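Predict the assembly for these four chains.
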Amino acid sequence: MPSSQSRARYAYLGPAGTFTEAALRQVASPEEAQYLPQAGVVAALEAVRSGDADFAVVPIENSVEGGVSATLDTLAGGESLALLREMLVPVSFVLAGRPGTRLEDVRRVATHPHAWAQCRRWTARELPEAVHVPATSTAAAGALLAEGTTQFEAALVSPLTADLYGLETIAEHVADTESAVTRFVLVGRPGRLPEPTGADKTTLVVHLPSNKAGALLEMLEQFAVRGVNLSRIESRPIGDSIGRYSFSIDAEGHIAEERVAEALMGLHRMCPFVKFLGSYPRLDGTPPEIWEGASDEAFREARAWVTSLVPPPTGT
Amino acid sequence: MPSSQSRARYAYLGPAGTFTEAALRQVASPEEAQYLPQAGVVAALEAVRSGDADFAVVPIENSVEGGVSATLDTLAGGESLALLREMLVPVSFVLAGRPGTRLEDVRRVATHPHAWAQCRRWTARELPEAVHVPATSTAAAGALLAEGTTQFEAALVSPLTADLYGLETIAEHVADTESAVTRFVLVGRPGRLPEPTGADKTTLVVHLPSNKAGALLEMLEQFAVRGVNLSRIESRPIGDSIGRYSFSIDAEGHIAEERVAEALMGLHRMCPFVKFLGSYPRLDGTPPEIWEGASDEAFREARAWVTSLVPPPTGT
Amino acid sequence: MPSSQSRARYAYLGPAGTFTEAALRQVASPEEAQYLPQAGVVAALEAVRSGDADFAVVPIENSVEGGVSATLDTLAGGESLALLREMLVPVSFVLAGRPGTRLEDVRRVATHPHAWAQCRRWTARELPEAVHVPATSTAAAGALLAEGTTQFEAALVSPLTADLYGLETIAEHVADTESAVTRFVLVGRPGRLPEPTGADKTTLVVHLPSNKAGALLEMLEQFAVRGVNLSRIESRPIGDSIGRYSFSIDAEGHIAEERVAEALMGLHRMCPFVKFLGSYPRLDGTPPEIWEGASDEAFREARAWVTSLVPPPTGT
Amino acid sequence: MPSSQSRARYAYLGPAGTFTEAALRQVASPEEAQYLPQAGVVAALEAVRSGDADFAVVPIENSVEGGVSATLDTLAGGESLALLREMLVPVSFVLAGRPGTRLEDVRRVATHPHAWAQCRRWTARELPEAVHVPATSTAAAGALLAEGTTQFEAALVSPLTADLYGLETIAEHVADTESAVTRFVLVGRPGRLPEPTGADKTTLVVHLPSNKAGALLEMLEQFAVRGVNLSRIESRPIGDSIGRYSFSIDAEGHIAEERVAEALMGLHRMCPFVKFLGSYPRLDGTPPEIWEGASDEAFREARAWVTSLVPPPTGT
């Protein structure tokens, strides 16, 4: 095991057993790295900004609930941070209780509000009378339940959490969508840009110049005209008044690729606010479909052609 | 006071003192109507579907956090419901405690996760060590605090809630954004369409045929080409896999207006799923800017012109 | 042979032997119809307007030279006329002279300016010193040459004209483009609209509201958003000042089809001038590729859906 | 007067008295330059290609008839030529005859077909029986008439031509459009690019990758997304088969400006054929309206921003 001094420090949403920890394990084992559990996503990201951690692992998108607003907002505001890598964790829930608890005993169920939302149909059907007790994380709900002094009888937690805290599984596969996954990102300080791999993603925050429908159309055309596809686009209110939106975008490609760089230049020219959060490899390794005219070579040829038409100024 | 029999029944997110109740009071006073507090937004909407309530009042959008996902998802799925009216409630929070509590005593703060998010900066500055205890509503946090047996020392609640439960205000104006507002809607069963007023809003849920950037562009052009502006557009994952999105849209205008009706026809033809949630008056009464060619009269003239060019089939 | 009284009268660009006569023969033989040769395209079209002819046959587009401006302008202005059918005639030229003429004798060549343009490369190569003598038609050039008193030694004419006037072929296949064709149209008075066949064409004249690039984009989107393809688009200056353009357009489909009708309505609403010149069968019988959402059935379903959402006004 | 050796040689459509000569006089007086009259536009342009002339002056666009196809086609094909300057000449026609000719004597009128087209309405009204005798230029028609042996009684010519050949004016102001103008260009060999003035024009020939309506939309978006307006766009068939079009375009701006250069790069990437014909000052000196984000400075800032995000590869 490397010494504590030399091991990289990873801030993440704890306690032990969270889905976030499962994502962190994909990056570095507890033997290789220092795990620094935090009370929330904001704290994890701020730990990187303050230098208390080298990296943070945070959820950015859930296939059921959408963008994780605390993550998106914290990345969008404040000092720049850089996304370095993405990780996917399948979402799987069990209803767990202290040993001996039966389904018919359950009247209050603790869990994180996102987890509650993802099991909404199951609970409505099997526990129509049950009340939701919000917890800061599914793992925290499990930990409290294990302590034995809570006002709730059961918790919706990951199978890992149930094991970790010695809880008994009352019901399995309780998530409404079996294929649900959460996407996590590894976040560091800016200045290190992962090398292009040919199958990359670029994450951006963009504010529109106005709230007209036309402004969104024009923003999308900045991508379309350069042959850049988007794999995610989400709007969030800017927060100053109802009607102005910030867009969180994943574009297919790497900023070191010409078509992406030119699209970013276009956004920079037309939009009052564009924040580059990083270019990093796609987890699935699928290269984007790029039409011939959007390849780096096509851009270089086009630039060479225009340059050949403009003689250098006389006298220089 | 009308008899309980004849008074309309309104389901809403309770208990007494929530922001939702403040919105409901804009629609009907407790004397005129039966107030039916519910445990959540889903329960309030389902009460209308089941016939247990005539109407529901639910939050649909917050100027800081964006769309309320439970409301949007419940409206998008299941039996149709109709939006009939919108209401705005300013968001204002105080940090409240039992009498005698001082700021330096506070280590745990109960409130709804959305409220916690809206006071993020204030708590990070004034209570950097404090832990968030999630509650089902701000009013519920206040009620629990008043009971006196909680494991938290303070709650972020509305001034109304603090009053209602006899709590003492520790700090005022703790919301990060002073101008924050929440938009609520009055929801009923379909079949009653508010009359067009000239300043209306139409709310839709639309799924795109594919997750290409081009598909979103084409969907927006269905509005643009008919001169219909959008006052809100929000994406949410459909939930079947990462990458497919559902759009929640407010368009300016009423379905009884030609340009809106034709845009809806266009969406219906191109998109696999379009749900009409209602046309209803804008609270601010501001009529949209409609260019000449998008007026009802322009549509009628254009239709008359085309009809004049196509002689009726011979033999009729 | 029908009596002169009952036979339909066809005005066309004469004299005998023109390509236009070849197009007319595709419509009606000289036995079935009265052929009324005219001095020009304008005269042929005006003969229909005045009632002196029932129909006119005129060239509308040449695969080398583009739109025939006299035809397009005469159709665009003045009393409405209706396009009823299209005919294609292959363009083939020979260099013809009086018997005994050799290529080296030729210093002046008579022909219509369009024919001269279509043989530009051949004459530049084989007769670099030859001067063009403009004629009103290729057939007229041939006829004058046969008279024997002209100041030119040869004419570029169709093989038919060479035969008809007893000229000798000096060189064959002199057109620069072997596959060149001219498209002709049969024109009548409005009020008779050919039935839709499933493979039709709609011809329009459209003026843009402004000379901004954006105006052309918006006009094209009126077609694109309804799934209507264009098979021809040509700009011509409106003539009032440099910079304003009129567009001559062939759209795929028939005005009796929903997607075409709605696109025409859109043009009527946004453009200061739209003239419908006719919907008629495509000569090649190729049905357009229509995506599912642009079929008549998709339009009817979409209309029925919108109608179902708008309850009829109370009291009616 | 400079010696013939040192005087620049200008090829143009002769003979003396043509509108083209009037345009040439705006560039260089007969004292300063050698005037080389040619039989046609093609010959004038080829004289520059062959080195027989230094420059050519040719008509490129007429406010009534549109693009001059011989000019556009000759510029589009073959060895590159460069547009250096534009000139406008008002179009004004008189009906001229030999001394003593009266309007009622006129049965045949000689003139260039474009001139005939521009006086179409006047001749139809005043000389409904008159036949058009095509001439190679209006000046040639005047010259032939002055010779006295022609088979026509009158010619439509410029007032200058009537004077030059001693003809008598039978009727003045016979052009249908009083404000008609013809635009001429000064053409040289490539390699000399006029300096940007802030009010320039860039002329291009572009072929579309397909004949779908969408292809034209995409081509226009290459301009729109960079904030480049078009002052002229004209389609002409490519000539290989009906349905494929070449576009002749005047864009506002100079290739040395960033937004124009990037738009040209975009065209080069998407289109099978793009020919740059020149960037040169607008005659009217009107600078284009450029929105803030399309200025050269905005492009430079955007490029600097993107560059700052991409650290140089390690090891360099």
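Chain B touches chain A through 54 residues (CB under 8 Å). The radius of gyration of chain B is 23 Å.
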